[in-house]
UniProtKB/TrEMBL annotation:
It comes from the Bacteria. Residues 1-20 are annotated as: Disordered. It catalyses: ATP + protein L-histidine = ADP + protein N-phospho-L-histidine. Its main location: membrane. The keyword Cell membrane applies. It is an enzyme of class 2 (transferase). It is a multi-pass membrane protein. It comes from Nitrospirillum amazonense. This is histidine kinase. Its EC number is 2.7.13.3. It is found in: Cell membrane.
Amino acid sequence: MTRQAWTASVGDSPDEARPGSGRWAAARINLRTLNTIRWIAIAGQTITLLTVEDLVGVDIPLLPALAVTAVSLLINLYAVARRRRSPFLTELGAVAFLGYDTVQLTLLLLLTGGLENPFAVLVLAPLMVGASMLARRLVTGLTALTTACLTLLWALAMPLSWPASNGVTLSPIYLAGIWAALTLAAIFIATYVYKVAQSGRDLSQALIASQVSLARAQKASALGALAAAAAHELGSPLGTIAVVAKELARDMPPDSPWQEDVQLLQSQCDRCRVILADLARRPDAEGEMEPYAPLGPVQVIEAVAAPHRRADVTLDITVTGAEEGAPSPLPLSPELQHGLGNIIQNAMQFATTRVDVTLHCDPSALVLTVADDGPGFPVSLLERLGEPYVSDRDERLEQVPVRVGGGGTMGLGLFIAQILLERTGAIVSYANGRPGSTPVGAGAQVTVNWSGPQPGD
């Protein structure tokens, strides 16, 4: 399956997330959730500041503390207005949002006793929220910021002015213990919450990937039924065409200018018969491919490419990393024959003068690249190649002459090739070459990568 970057959204539906490498390339954080958390924090801070002196009798710098809370109020109002334009934050935006909350709460605690304040534990709240939705490097940064803020609260906080009758003086050793406990709690919470959240994200990613794979398999199954029906329906008209072509060849004078065209028509009818026979053949027939096992990699690729060769296009096959005389790691299975054959046929059809097939073999991976010197894939369709009913053929045919083929297609060729090759454990990717990047220059490139089990395993 072609891998794409996975975009995850907190609060998004599963349909909006895309599977890929497992990393968040462009994570989107729901701004409404962070706004709600901050509203709760502002309300709690304001009520506490306005009532603590009357309830407990502790003298605090009320106006500076309320000013710090008012700044949070203004920022949250701005965030609400921004949410109307864009309801999501990037990861960097979210870490800035939560980092400000950590710093704001630290300023309040500096004015109200630091680690002597029982509410000092709330410094861990933004870190816990961030660990549940941010990437590892950002969680690490937020943990470092929280640890620095706890250190400032330990070293620089203004002492609380306790009532004379209930004077409280905490030992420096006890304050150091509180700092150590909160610092360790910050590291533990960040690590544990991140691991739990990451496990949930990995599970969701695997589920989405399975759903995508199942959908593609269903499309392939439907396409197989369509191919079987097409093979059945095409048998009769193809037979009629073959009979008519044979009659024309028999009745036509040897010096007729149409003799070559009739021979071409017969050869193409024969080729269609072979294709229809292959569609009808069971790919799982026991021992069907055994005679091809001793072939080398070059011979296997040549056998696959043979039906698609063009006299005016050079096919160059290069194999690296394989011992001379060793059996090919590419068995002539039906999936490989049809999948790789489709890709080589596409390259041959649109090449100008040359097609390069490169096979690299090593114990950990098997990479096959097919590159041509044609016009390349249209950039607008490059990311969608391998999906059904996506065609770039019309646009490319306008740029390069071909002798056989033409007309519009439904883009099923590459889709079928990709499905068949994926059944062998391959990952298929598409790209356009850069001048000088390949022996054939800037053209279309298709890479088939078996990084796990080899196709013959």
